């Protein structure tokens, strides 16, 4: 063949290949429900997903790919994730999709790794997340009926979905993305409202923004009573249930709502949630693999909740009723630990999946290395009371009756309430919250001296002493809003007034505290507060005034591959909040447990500058007598309950106490 002939052949071949490429590209991807054959159809072929839950909002962005790869290498072909509304719109009309909130990047990473996505965008998600993902500013309308056709709620939802869903649309499977199904609301059959008009409205909003082709679904408990109010025509009804039960009976509830179509367990529990003061929940791997194998043998679609739990950094944890807040760790006894480490449960589940589909060749990525940076000496910086002018940017609000957090336009953290003792209390006199209006813990002091702690549902009265005109302070902590059930309208602060003896207290000064901003901007170190090493906060009744402590440590530069993940331990400390380099790690409460250590991801640590540790101890520091420290270790401690409250203990796989 001549060179000219060869050139013509190459041109023709190029044209043919181009035509083929155009033809292939012109064939749209499709995902649908085949009711006749009781399955999903992906690009025309029968399809079954084996999925695991991962919450991007509980994992630092730098670790998203690592966690997704480990899920892929376990044999999963899909992931499931929530989108918490309040994580992205903390104040009305101000949206944040950057950094750790870049959900579009997370979805793209999932697709790049080879995972499909089952998306649960709410607007309500539950998820043991503050207020179930609903933004607390909705409560500015005090009598708003959340998760209903309440016009104010609907207006806010429509605006939010009008922002979110267009971001999501390009990632739908039919548009070339990884999202195969989208959930509308979440476990609505467990909510009191039973508002079908609300579900219909949400359905129309989702269809308007996402189109008619996307598979929309609902999730409810595996009982006909849950599906009664949780399912709606046009939304494919799925169920959730844990291991150890009768799988066939559980799926029969779904068949009551959906006589035909794929079997789907949208939340197959690999572990369970924790509460402060209760033992750490664990679920037997034996039960999990038995039930998982049974479901997969039936051809069911399964999402494992959680496959990795992650961490409630900052103030993001939720709470259940009767009021029981969740700890900082959301480890969940999942196949991947809070830090993304591989467990025996991970490999056991991988072996089950291997019996039902081909899994990727090769080993999964290893657990991330940990480093014990050792003890860090802590010293008193200042008390909350002394730093009040620095912490309260706007100064006090004077009011006859106490104001709630929302009335102060504050969502999280702490508010200080101040009034004066109106009468002679030289003998111990009861300070009471007769209507159980302390939400959630109040650290009480008179003239700066601690007198006791009021606690929601648990301690409604303490005795104080004082004389007329003495300064009475209550530092009130928001411990996390209820995320499940009819009490999600969870106001914080002093939500009702207090009494001293038989007399109601009036004329308050209320200080909204911007503690996170003060720490991240270094204001506490610029205020000239530095205490001497021997000084201590006022003490009484086994308590010390709430105070800030600070310490620094340097990561060695001669050791390769640092910084690494670690855990911070609080020997002798009671309860409080901790920041590292201005990043709010979360709450510690070893005095109640079960969690003792907090996970410290490497990305917040520095090898070029000293690392600053700031502790807000609320109850009593270990600094008197002697040296007080925090310690960095390689071993997490999540199961060391110190004080248990069996009256509030939950059963596995039940989120509420009925």
What does this structure look like?
The longest helix is centred in the N-terminal third of the chain and has 24 residues. This protein has 658 residues and is an alpha+beta fold. Strand 25 and strand 26 form a beta hairpin. Helix 2 packs parallel to helix 4 and helix 9 packs parallel to helix 10. An eight-stranded parallel β-barrel has the order 4-5-6-7-8-9-10-11, surrounded by five helices. Strands 16-27-17-23-20-21 form a six-stranded antiparallel sheet, with no helix packed on it. A five-stranded antiparallel sheet has the order 15-30-35-32-33.
Keywords:
single chain, 658 residues, alpha+beta, eight-stranded parallel β-barrel, six-stranded antiparallel sheet, 36 strands, 21% helix, 25% strand, globular, disordered N terminus
Helix content: 10-25%
Read across the widest sheet, the strand sequence of neighbours is 4-5-6-7-8-9-10-11
Largest sheet: 8 strands, parallel, barrel
Structural class: alpha+beta
Mean pLDDT: 93
E-strand count: 36
Spatial extent as radius of gyration: 27 Å
What share of the residues does DSSP label as strand, in percent? 15-25%
How far is the N terminus from the C terminus? 85 Å
Which regions are unreliable across 5 or more consecutive residues at pLDDT < 50? 1-25
Envelope shape? globular
> What is the tally of helical segments?
13
